[in-house]
Specification:
- This protein is 32% helix and 24% strand.
- It is an alpha/beta fold.
- The protein has a single domain, classed as Rossmann fold (3-Layer(aba) Sandwich).
- The chain has a five-stranded mixed β-barrel, surrounded by four helices.
- The longest helix is centred in the last third of the chain and has 25 residues, at 244-268.
- It starts with a helix and ends with a helix.
């Protein structure tokens, strides 16, 4: 079976179980699976029941696809993702994203937990990603043979959608920072020297996900919006060691802001 046929079959399975085919999807990062619990009329499908979907091995990643409505908009929410550091593959999310594209998803919202490189963007903050730096990872389209692999990334994050979300954040009274996200492979946290280098390169936040999915989503023709929930100041900024427990503990603080923002957006712009 070709990858395209597998994606179509998985999409048919999802649509059959959900009873509808959403045009909007979300991928939730570490400690942010609470968003999936707020979906109205939720239908849950375990990743294990969907061909090609990841099997997360990271605490804070649930491993389920939840379909339903947020603010009247039909959505498919991936509660959990696969990371490069779990297996050394940057294209591990491709089958799942291809299935969502075959389902009819046109817009993908991505979230992650990240470290801030600025004291004025402390833990609990919410950052809208407007660009990224992926120098430390492997491109997920390596091995693709079609000319589609040469994906333009000048506007990886949809500008019109970003402007709309900024306006909605302001109306909701949410401070929505904007910045550049730098992807590192993990699983170890960064050194202070690496953070200084990231700052010199123009990064505002750093994390271990999202960039491969953005590249894949653009390859599949989706519009993209992405957010970092800030869970810590980056290595060397506080003198304390970093931990995944801190990520899971503090992610819900920014996650609540993200829930309010997305609920407003989906209520205003139904799909």
């Amino acid at each position: 079976m070709s990858p395209e046929e597998a994606a179509r079959r998985t999409a048919e399975t999802i649509a059959g179980k959900a009873g509808f085919a959403p045009r909007t999807a979300l991928i939730l990062g570490s400690g942010l699976s609470g968003l999936a619990d707020r979906i109205e009329g939720a239908v849950e499908i375990a990743y294990a029941d969907l061909e090609g979907f990841p099997r997360p091995s990271v605490s804070g990643h649930a491993g389920r696809l939840v379909l339903g409505r947020i603010g009247g908009t039909e959505v498919a929410v991936m509660a959990g993702r696969s990371h490069f550091y779990e297996h050394g593959r940057s294209d591990a999310m491709r089958p799942a994203l291809a299935a969502l594209a075959a389902l009819g998803v046109e817009t993908l919202f991505l979230t992650n937990a990240a470290g801030s490189l600025h004291e004025e963007m402390p833990p609990g903050s919410l950052m809208q990603i407007v660009d990224h730096i992926g120098f430390f990872g492997v491109n997920p389209l390596i091995g693709e043979t079609s000319d589609g692999r040469f994906v333009g990334m000048t506007e990886a994050y949809d500008r019109q959608l970003a402007m709309c979300l900024q306006g909605e954040a302001q109306a909701e009274g949410i401070e929505l920072h904007q910045g550049v996200y730098l992807w590192v492979t993990g699983p170890s946290f960064e050194t202070p020297a690496e953070i200084r280098a990231a700052h010199a390169l123009g990064a505002d936040a750093v994390g271990m996900s999202t960039v491969p999915e953005v590249i894949l989503a653009r390859y599949l023709g989706m519009k993209v919006a992405a957010f970092s929930v800030i869970t810590n100041l980056a290595a060397g900024m506080t003198g304390r060691e970093l931990s995944h427990d801190e990520t899971k503990e503090l992610a819900p603080q920014g996650g609540r802001k993200l829930e309010a923002l997305l609920a407003r957006h989906f209520a205003k712009v139904p799909a």
